[in-house]
Specification:
488 residues; alpha+beta; Immunoglobulin-like; 4 domains; six-stranded antiparallel β-sheet; five-stranded mixed β-sheet
């Protein structure tokens, strides 16, 4: 699965006219592929926002920025592969006219296995320090199973006229690194490869590929964004497609690709995360007008305040469209429609027994209300409550409330979050009185990523104006980084 990392490089800015510091915005993603009978490889995609880097005057009078990039792949602390290179922007005659970004793509041939990827980015024209980030990568393409490569989201694709680094299967593929689709984007373009269908299903046979969109919060296929097609078996079957998303509402989603055999058995599945902003598409009250709630659990909740609280408690597990719709119902104050919405919400998630699903969830709501409430918020309204209700209790929880020089903090570690592995959440509070711990960092998809989270914890003793530092100095008693890297 292609993973998205937001590398928001918050570097020093000064008002001095001679300063060479800027806030660098860089975005990184990758996808894994395989060449049957040969090797696997990782394809990396990097996009840099032009207005976030320093342009330097060249001998010909034009201006150009220069970024140094280092990528290191390690296994058990041993370097397996690396690249260090300079990425230059297009040249411009006037830096005030910079309104573009520039991208880079690399390929690394690697054997199947687990890797630690370290990325270093440095603006060579800036006096600000560079940025370092780490991620874990898994490559697995066994020959005795059908596998789907990483899903590459595309800005565009065209028939190739000559072979370049952007060429695959006869097409030039321009990567979409940001995985964000504004209202102006009407389609989602993607490329993926399906391996070993000739071995597992048989040569000269057909198989079925389903590709569809599901909500990230509620992994259930959206039938209006579902396509099925037949393909011929081969060592590496190519799927290059586009989908109409003009009517897809705002929210967090996943593009899902399934491979099924002639008996409709699932052979392989892969997903990629993306975000959509489409404020013109809204849910309609007519969507629930025909729903009958007679003799359902929702019909028994008659107190308006209790009903409003029930709807608002769904926020942590709702899609953006559902949150907006529920808020509009609360503002209207129509009790009957709120009851219908509550029933429909759970009926969509568990058609067999929506009442049981609601009771199970509301039990967890009462738990977080008891554990995480503050003087001004109910538990489900807090960051810890939201994460608990969305993902469940963490597998490991580190609490540090009296570390010298640190604000109280908690680190939650999840072994699995759906398709994600080994994900962490860091919360901190300025005191222990309010019980309001704020999420300051997570490496989970769709959550707040902040590479300087350690500074937020140690601000009480570390000068917060020293923003060139990614982390505080390693002094006696500082344990947050150790707890994060080695949960206990």
């Amino acid at each position: 699965m292609k993973k998205l990392l937001l590398l928001l490089l918050l570097l020093a800015c000064f008002s001095n006219a001679y300063s060479q510091n800027k806030n660098i915005n860089a975005y990184f993603s990758y996808a894994s592929f395989h060449i049957p009978g040969q090797s696997s490889f990782i394809e990396t995609y990097l996009a840099v926002k032009g207005t976030s880097v320093v342009f330097k005057k060249m001998e010909n009078g034009d201006y150009q920025s220069s970024i140094e990039i280092t990528m290191i792949f390690r296994q058990q602390n041993a370097i397996v592969d690396f690249a260090k290179y300079e990425l230059k922007s297009p040249s411009v005659k006037d830096t005030n006219a910079v309104n573009f970004g520039f991208i880079d793509q690399q390929r690394f041939a690697l054997k199947d296995g687990e890797y630690d990827l370290e990325i270093n980015i440095l603006d060579l024209n800036s006096s600000s320090p560079g940025f370092k980030s780490n991620d874990k990568i898994s490559l697995s393409f066994p020959a005795d199973k059908i596998h789907i490569s990483g899903i590459q989201l595309l800005e565009s694709f065209t028939k190739s006229t000559k072979e370049t680094i952007l060429t695959k299967s006869g097409y030039d593929l321009i990567p979409l690194v940001y995985a964000f689709y504004p209202e102006s984007d009407k389609t989602i373009n993607f490329y993926t490869e399906i391996y070993n269908t000739d071995k597992i299903i048989g040569p000269n046979e057909q198989f079925v590929v389903n590709y569809y969109i599901e909500s990230f919060e509620n992994p259930k296929r959206m039938l209006e964004f579902f396509t099925r097609r037949k393909m011929n078996t081969s060592p590496a079957a190519i799927l290059l497609q586009k989908m109409d998303i003009s009517k897809l509402p705002s929210g967090n989603f996943q593009l899902v690709i399934e491979v099924r055999n002639s008996q409709n058995d699932l052979e392989a599945i892969n997903k990629v995360f993306f975000q959509r902003s489409n404020p013109s598409i809204q849910y309609n009250l007519g969507d629930i007008a025909s729903i009958s709630i007679e003799n359902t659990f929702a019909s028994k909740i008659n107190n308006p305040d209790t009903l409003i609280d029930c709807l608002m408690s769904l926020t942590p597990i709702s899609t953006e469209a559902e949150r907006n719709f529920a808020t509009s119902l609360v503002n209207l104050g129509d009790k009957k429609n709120m009851q219908k919405y509550l029933f429909n919400f759970w009926n969509n998630r568990d058609n067999a027994n929506p009442s049981k699903a609601w009771d199970k969830y509301y039990l967890e709501v009462r738990k977080v209300n008891a554990a995480y409430k503050t003087k001004t918020k109910k538990g489900y309204q807090t960051d810890r409550g939201r994460v608990y209700l969305k993902y469940g209790p963490p597998n490991q929880l580190t609490e540090s409330y009296s570390e010298p020089g640190a604000y109280p903090y908690e680190i939650w570690h999840y072994y699995t979050l759906g398709d994600q592995r080994n994900k962490k959440f860091v919360f901190t509070s300025k005191d222990m009185v309010t019980n309001d711990f704020i999420l300051i960092h997570s490496d989970a998809i769709g959550e707040l990523f902040n590479y300087r989270w350690q500074l937020d914890i140690y601000k009480r003793t570390w000068d917060p104006t020293s923003i060139d530092q990614a982390a505080p100095e390693d002094t006696w008693g500082n344990k947050a980084t150790d707890y994060y890297n080695q949960p206990r």
